[in-house]
Amino acid sequence: MECRIGGADLNPYLAFAALLAAGLSGVEQKLELEPPFVGDAYHGERLREIPKTLREATETLRGSKMLRQAFGEAVVDHYVHAAEWEQGEYDDASPIGS
Predict the structure, then answer these.
(1) Cα 32 to the chain's mean position, in Å?
(2) CA 60 to chain centroid
(3) Where are the alpha helices (DSSP H) in the chain?
(4) What pLDDT is recorded for position 49?
(5) φ, ψ for residue 26 (rounded to 5)?
(6) With the CA atoms of 64, 67, 73 and 79 taken in that order, what torsion angle do they form, in degrees rounded to the nearest 10?
(7) Tell me, what's the pLDDT at 45?
(8) Could you report the average pLDDT of every consecutive run of 10 residues in the chain (98 residues)?
């Protein structure tokens, strides 16, 4: 299992709960593990990536059936709403054209 350290704005309890939920979901669904990656992960070509922007992450969260089952609709909808608000505040504060 890989557990990367998140940013300073990360809620460690929520992140750990999501990590456990994902692991348990994989066990329950009998998902097969991907082969381990060996080498320089910064230059690897066969690595899946996580969302690169808040917009992409918000859409990924919104559509996650696994997290909705683990945390409940209200919790996921709350974090989706919070992310949309944060993105809107950023958009409003950003200079035009950036």
Answers:
(1) 20
(2) 7
(3) 12-28, 54-62, 65-71, 73-93
(4) 85
(5) -60, -40
(6) -90
(7) 81
(8) 73 90 95 87 83 95 97 97 96 78
